[in-house]
Amino acid sequence: MKKHIVVVGGGFAGINFIKSIAKYNDFIITLIDRNNYHFFPPLIYQVATAFIEPSHISYPFRKLFSEYNNVHYHMGSFIKINTELQLIETDNGNLAYDHVIFALGTETNFFGLDNVQQCALPMKTIQEALYIKDHLLLNLEKASRNEDEKKAERLQNIVIAGVGPTGVELAGMIAEMGACCQKRIS
Q1: Which of 107, 124, 126, 153 is the most exposed place for a label (fewest CB within 10 A)?
Q2: With left for phi above 0 and alpha for psi between -120 and 50, is residue 95 left, alpha or beta?
């Protein structure tokens, strides 16, 4: 009897685990993820700054695993696990399992600062990156049309928390985006 392995999370860890065992027909594998695509987070800053489209960094799970007959995809958000009944509950139904792998990834950490959590624009998902893109472009447009220099400067005031590779790249791309507005206002 084939064992049913449920993998919760379609990031790098979940995808690599599935690829490592999908070639063995001893298993039936079900991937659970709230999105129906895998995406490449190191380039999310380029989506947030309108330099690339989300489709350039995302790939559908069903297409990714189309060569494997024993890999299935279940779109849903994990709610809870019932270990006694061996059931995973999602917002889109329940799944029985023999083994479960949790590969849920990371969450934005606001370090307990409520004011930061209320005001910050996190950038962990494609939806968050698209929101940032819309916010940036709208503010730059407002700044370019604003006759009040102080208001225009405030519209262009951006704080980036984090100076890792993504923060540095994001700062460079935003500076490039803002160059056109700076010329207009000065």
Answers
A1: 107
A2: beta
2-50: pLDDT as tens digits: 999 999 999 999 999 999 999 999 999 999 999 999 999 999 999 999 9
Question: Cα(126)–Cα(54) distance, rounded to whole angstroms?
Answer: 7
CA separation for the pair 129, 27 (Å, rounded): 36
User: Residue 82 pLDDT > 90, yes or no?
Assistant: yes
* Residue 53 among the catalytic residues: no
CA 61 to chain centre: 14
**Which member of 67, 107, 169, 176 is catalytic?**
169
| Six-digit token string for 8 | 């919760």
Query: DSSP E strands: which ranges in 40-90?
Result: 58-60, 71-75, 78-82, 87-90
Strand partners, 27: 3
- Cβ atoms of 32 and 7 closer than 8 Å: yes
pTM to 2 decimal places: 0.85
